[in-house]
Design a protein that fits this description.
By secondary structure, the chain is an alpha+beta fold. It has five domains: 146 residues, no CATH class; 123 residues, 2-Layer Sandwich (Beta-Lactamase); 108 residues, Beta-Lactamase (2-Layer Sandwich), CATH 3.30.450; 61 residues; 165 residues, Heat Shock Protein 90, CATH 3.30.565. It is 52% helix and 17% strand. The protein has a five-stranded antiparallel sheet with strand order 2-1-5-4-3. It has a five-stranded antiparallel sheet with strand order 7-6-10-9-8. The radius of gyration is 48 Å and the shape is flat. The two termini are 38 Å apart.
Length: 634
């Protein structure tokens, strides 16, 4: 950055030196002419650019709206096709049922009709159709899903409906209309069921397309569907419903009246939606976008067709934002022109400002470099402080382990002295037996001596492992082995108190990612605290319970001691807090244990045990260790 800025400064100085060689008047004249020409050009551009920007932005906005409408048409067509296809094959499937086919028999009794009605009622509930009914070859309803309602179709003649006539002649029919019985609109799909040696029957399903209309209206979408005559029967705009796109022809009016398609509506008084002179599109895909009046606002509309019903889908959107957007860009162009024109008068000030900013930048870089050095020193000091704190923490952890060993020293000496005394007596017996040449008994006594040596070795091994400073590498730790090692270390103390810790485990031994000796230290600390709590109690007992649940392993140490006072329960893990007499501890055990468990993603909690005493629970996540050391993970 300094080199580049130095080059800029050099270039500026060379330019000033070259300009100093020219006469000031000539330089002023040339600059004035150039600025005058550029100003005149910018004024022309400033006053013509808004008009051009307005037309370009308007055209772009219209194109964007047309593309949006085209996408809306595609989605609408797919939604309609999906809704219709749900029930397309339902009449044929129902027609294969024996209860429906039995309706074609001449002698239909009440049992046959009841079975068919109940079956249709069940299918409607499961399939989600509006209604299901069966017509005979004359168009009279034999059975219907709404047989038990006041609007039952049974006995009604629907032979005038196109869907019946098409099904009789072509095998299937489809038609949208307002129901003459229920006065509710729906889409009727019919299929002829041919039965050998019997008159055919017609199965009709009525699908409710009103949810589409409700969705459009709730979303404020200007979408509508018109039939082949151009009459809108579904619309997100309530003002368009049951209105023709263009004035109806005489033939269309007569057919709609004969078929009672929109029974109860006055189509003759309905105002056409499209502007006068615009004919509904024959091929909606080829028809350009149109401007349509919609409740006092201008709408841009596009069309598409849905086969095989020859429906016309209309999607429209307001054009109010087009003028606003075009006006915004025209105003932006005007402002840009004015800004560009005014900027010509400030070129010299800008050059001076740039040079001043360059000098300020150099000063700022210097200050940043100084501050960077200060931060580097602060970071180095912080790292040293953190290292010292880490070493101090490790020293405290080791000191607490040594303190735990000190608390058990008397019992440990007793644990080792007993095998030593027994070993001495055994070896003396071996000497006597050797003099008597009793080789068999000598071997037995030597085996006893070896067992005593192994017992002392195991105790010393645990003490040696526990006493060394812990590593920081994560390893796979078997929690049950941790429990056994802690019990072995605390056994002398437990024997001195007359306590045999009970162990209860649930399921196979889980593995955790931790440092074994540290977890063992936590376990020993909890166990020793439990033993201290039951000292002097009648019938003392300590139970270690290991459970697993939801990827966590929990080890609970339960004692029947005096328990933790409620006012002390939240402070037991604080450093240097202790309820023991002076000299019996520093109060760091539970604080360090809590820090160790939290280091491996776990926690220690305390609660009152049933019947009195304390429940100390160590919970840790189950999982294998990663390849990174614990310190790197921190």
């Amino acid at each position: 950055m300094k080199d580049k800025r130095g080059d800029c400064s050099l270039l500026t100085e060379e330019t000033l030196h070259s300009m100093q060689k020219i006469k000031p008047s000539l330089v002023g004249s040339v600059m004035a002419r150039n600025i005058g020409r550029m100003t005149a050009f910018m004024l022309v551009v400033t006053f013509t650019a808004p008009f051009a920007a307005y037309h370009v932005a308007s055209g772009a906005a219209v194109s964007a709206l047309e593309a949006q409408l085209q996408r809306s048409l595609v989605l609408t067509n797919r939604a309609i096709a999906t809704e219709v296809e749900r029930f397309r094959y339902l009449p044929l499937v129902i027609g294969e049922d024996a209860r429906i086919r039995a309706l074609s028999a001449a002698g239909r009794d009440a049992a046959v009709l009841d079975a068919a009605n109940l079956y249709l009622q069940t299918v409607v509930r499961q399939a989600g159709a509006a209604e299901l009914y069966v017509l005979d070859s004359r168009g009279v309803t034999l059975a219907a899903s709404n047989f038990a309602t006041a609007e039952s179709f049974i006995g009604h003649d629907y032979s005038f409906r196109p869907y019946f006539q098409d099904a009789i002649h072509n095998g299937e029919g489809r038609y949208y209309a307002i129901g003459v019985t229920t006065k509710k609109p729906g889409y009727f799909l019919s299929s002829r069921i041919d039965i050998p040696d019997r008159p055919p029957i017609i199965v009709v399903v009525k699908a409710d397309l009103q949810p589409l209309e409700v969705t459009w209206e709730a979303a404020g979408v200007q979408t509508a569907i018109a039939d082949r005559w151009g009459i809108v029967f579904l619309s997100g705009n309530p003002d368009w419903k049951y209105r023709p796109l263009a004035p109806l022809s005489r033939e269309a009016a007569e057919r709609v009246a004969a078929e009672r398609t929109y029974d109860g509506t006055d189509l003759a008084e309905a105002k056409p939606i499209l502007p006068a002179g615009v004919v509904p599109p024959i091929n909606a895909a080829d028809m350009p976008a149109l401007r349509v009046d919609g409740e006092g606002q201008q709408l841009l509309a596009r069309f598409s067709a849905i086969e095989p019903d020859s429906w016309i889908v209309l999607a429209a959107t307001s054009t109010e934002d087009i003028a606003k957007l075009a006006g915004f860009w025209a105003l932006a162009a005007l402002i840009a022109g004015l800004v560009a024109t005014g900027s010509l008068y400030f070129l010299h000030q800008r050059a001076l400002l740039i040079r001043m900013r360059l000098r300020q930048g150099e000063i700022l870089e210097l200050k940043v470099a100084e501050r960077t050095q200060d931060l580097a020193r602060e970071i180095d000091m912080r790292k040293r402080t953190e290292d010292e704190l880490r070493r101090a923490q490790e020293g405290l952890v080791h000191s607490e382990k040594m303190a735990a060993l000190g608390r058990m020293s008397t019992a440990i000496v007793h644990e080792v002295s007993q095998p030593l005394a027994a070993l001495e007596a055994t070896l003396a017996t071996v000497g006597v037996l050797a003099e008597k040449e009793a080789a068999a008994k000598v071997g037995e006594r030597l085996l006893d001596a070896r067992a005593l040596v192994k017992r002392m070795q195991r105790t010393v091994k645990h003490l040696k492992t526990f006493g060394r400073k812990g590593a920081s590498e994560l390893e796979a730790v078997d929690i049950d082995i941790v429990i056994r090692n802690a019990i072995d270390l605390a056994t002398p103390r437990a024997k001195a108190l007359g306590v045999v810790p009970a162990v209860e485990v649930q399921g196979p031994a889980p593995v955790i990612a931790a440092v074994g000796v540290k977890v063992e230290q936590v376990m020993l600390n909890l166990l020793l605290n439990a033993l201290d709590a039951v000292e002097g109690r009648p019938a003392p007992s300590v139970t270690i319970r290991r459970t697993t649940d939801a990827g966590q392993v929990s080890v609970t140490v339960i004692d029947n001691g005096t328990g933790i006072a409620p006012e002390h329960r939240d402070r037991v893990a604080e450093p240097f807090f202790t309820t023991k007499l002076t000299g019996e501890g520093l109060g760091l055990g539970l604080s360090i244990a809590t820090a160790i468990v939290q280091e491996f993603g776990g926690e220690i909690t305390f609660a009152e045990a049933p019947g009195g005493g304390t429940m100390a629970t160590m919970s840790m996540p189950i999982g294998m260790p990663s390849a990174h050391p614990l310190e790197a993970a921190q």
